[in-house]
Design brief:
- The chain is an alpha/beta fold.
- The protein is built from twelve helices and eleven strands.
- 40% of the residues lie in helices and 17% in strands.
- It starts with a helix and ends with a helix.
- The protein binds fe (ii) ion.
């Protein structure tokens, strides 16, 4: 038996070497299905590998693509860790029973409202909904009190958004959770009638900044990232934060979880542990991303609006219903 397993091991090693695999075959390694912005995780993963010696293989995709893939693959999946941009994709995998519970000390640094009570995954970074507005075209006094107001006739022809993206769909999921189906359907119909659709949140920002559209719905970081660079597509733009627990003050969390089917659970947990730790959160804060760290020990520097000032509505991160949002948006003709 011993000889057979040695032969088998050699048979497995040789094809990898022949394929020119540059990884250290002997070292520990995890597979991360990553739906967060690629650049962010590509900045973070090397620091984790340096600290732990665990190699990270990224398989990049979009939130709902990768959650659907995990559901299809089930027990047979190669994935050890799943990372998303927004939480509806995490909830989908959670509902299918595919996550393994995270040790309490790994999730402890993250405030309770930003992780499910099940302990099956955790938020690790957050993004605030904002209204980007062109400062030449919109006076501060005109800004809406609620994101629901954008469905009113006074906003006809003035608003824009990227409805095919997971970001916008998470915002709709929050409206649905907070306001119910009737209100959400009417709101979607209203903003569809009033709005212009673009493909991508950066394109929405460009349209607002160029005055093609007066206001656009997105997350905070699209504006701040451009400001941090040259401000080329944001210098005529400012951000309106809705606050007051309005649906438009929704804070969306990016999730991290370990798959129950993982053969490398201990190493996968180390990766999630790193993401929630002060070192990992500082790495997130220091990256290009300008998404909000969730560990209260770490803060973003000005000019980013302070996380403590956002006054988001209370939303159960496990209740955001991605498939219901897709149905409603299809019904209204967005998708
Ligand atoms: Fe995004």
């Amino acid at each position: 038996m011993k000889r057979a397993s040695v032969v088998l091991a050699l048979a497995l090693v040789i094809p990898l070497a022949a394929a020119g695999c540059s990884d250290d075959d002997d070292g520990p390694s995890i597979v991360v299905y990553n739906a967060q912005h690629e650049q962010l995780i590509e900045e973070l993963a090397p620091a984790f590998t340096e600290e732990t010696g665990i190699d990270v293989q990224l398989r990049n995709g979009k939130d709902l693509e990768l959650s659907a893939q995990l559901v299809t693959e089930g027990e047979a999946s190669d994935a050890d860790v799943f990372l998303t941009e927004n939480s509806p994709a995490m909830s989908q995998v959670e509902r299918e029973g595919l996550f393994s519970e995270l040790p309490a000390d790994i999730v402890a640094p993250i405030p309770e409202q930003f992780r499910p009570t099940s302990g099956l995954w955790t938020g690790f970074v957050a993004r605030s909904t904002v209204l980007m507005y062109n400062t030449d075209l919109v006076d501060e006094s005109e800004l809406p009190t609620s994101i629901l107001d954008l469905a009113e006739p006074e906003w006809a022809g003035r608003i824009s958004f990227s409805p095919t993206g997971a970001d916008f769909q998470a915002i709709v999921a929050a409206v649905l959770e907070l306001e119910g189906e009737e209100v959400t359907r009417d709101w979607l119909q209203g903003i569809k009638d009033n709005g212009t659709v673009y493909d991508g949140n950066n394109v929405v920002l460009e349209a607002v900044n160029a005055g093609e559209s007066e206001v656009g719905i997105a997350y905070h970081y699209y504006y701040y990232r451009d400001q941090q660079e040259a401000g080329e597509v944001s210098d005529n733009t400012a951000l309106h934060f809705f606050r007051n627990q309005d649906a438009g003050a929704f804070v969306s969390v990016s999730g991290a979880g370990v798959l129950a089917s993982s053969d490398n659970k201990a190493d996968a947990e180390k990766f999630v542990d790193y993401l929630t730790s002060e070192a990992g959160q500082q790495g997130l804060a220091d990256s290009y991303a300008l998404e909000y760290p969730l560990n209260p020990a770490v803060k973003l520097d000005p000019p980013v609006e302070p996380f403590d000032s956002l006054q988001p509505p209370a939303v159960n991160v496990s209740e955001l219903d991605g498939p219901a949002v897709v149905d409603l948006m299809t019904e209204v003709g967005f998708l």
